[in-house]
Amino acid sequence: MPEFDALENTRWRGYRLSRRSIVKGVAMLPLATATAGLAGPAYAVAPASGEQAPGFYRFRVGGFELTNIYDGELARQLDASLIPNASPDDILPVIAAAGLPTDHIDNPYVFTSINTGTQLIMVDVGTRGKFAPPIAFGARNMTAAGINPADVDLIVLTHFHPDHLLGLTDRDNNPVYPNAQVAVGASELKFWDDDKAMARAGEQLRPFFGFARRSIAPYRDRMRTFGDGDVISPGLQAIATPGHTPGHMVIQVADGDDQLLILGDAISLPYIFVRHPEWHQIFDMDQDLAEQQRWKILRRAADENLRVVGAHFPFPAIGRIIADGDSFNYAPEQWSSAVH
Length: 340
Fold this sequence. Notes:
Helices cover 26% and strands 25% of the residues. The chain has 340 residues and is of the alpha/beta class. The model is unreliable at 1-38 (pLDDT under 50).
């Protein structure tokens, strides 16, 4: 069937322009431009909003609906202490090749919700604005995503660093999640509850013990622990990845044949540590062990073509690991208006 019928074609012929009319119209443009400001109402320019769109991104693992929630980003000075076993001459070309600034690193902060259809689960909970001023958007973005803390059934913590658990409580240390159980790695809880470990900790690490203990205090009576390989909840399994912290866990999410790895901080800043897993980062408590875990997780993700979510990956913080010779590359997932 033709796009237009005969009558419509007749009407559209009336709008066709001859070469003469086009030339005449172009000749009139300077006059039209000169007189454009002489008549008609004036309109004020709309003010710039100065605000970014809400930061959340939805996707699926089988029948589960997951939402990555952006908490913000923090600019960190790029100096030799960040990667102690690599020189600036090695590091700067890698960062420049990613098209990023070479005088600082913008470190993003992301956490994840999982709606299984029967449970609403959080994997880490962000900072609630209590860590650093630029990292303060998690609560707003949860609201924009329609996620009510009162509806959350279970919180799974990958580890006890403050940027992953300060969001358990408000500024008065009241629980934000009134109905949620909290699941934590047994070895992680044991370490941060250890007074001797706190006494041995250096000046930079010691405050983290206080952050952890205060944040979990209101949840002690509804807390349970898990170990390597344990099924935390149907579809969620723990993978021990010690090194970043003594009890760090990657969370495998699976429904049917579909699987994904929530990395926590086992791997951060993919343009650096996916490309160079052998480089150490200052935030890993046992840097040699953390390197071993990076290689293990990267190999598995590449071999099995698994999607991964990183707490410190550029938003929307989801993609795949691609083997590249003796190393790996990160292929970020393209933003999609469809949830898949």
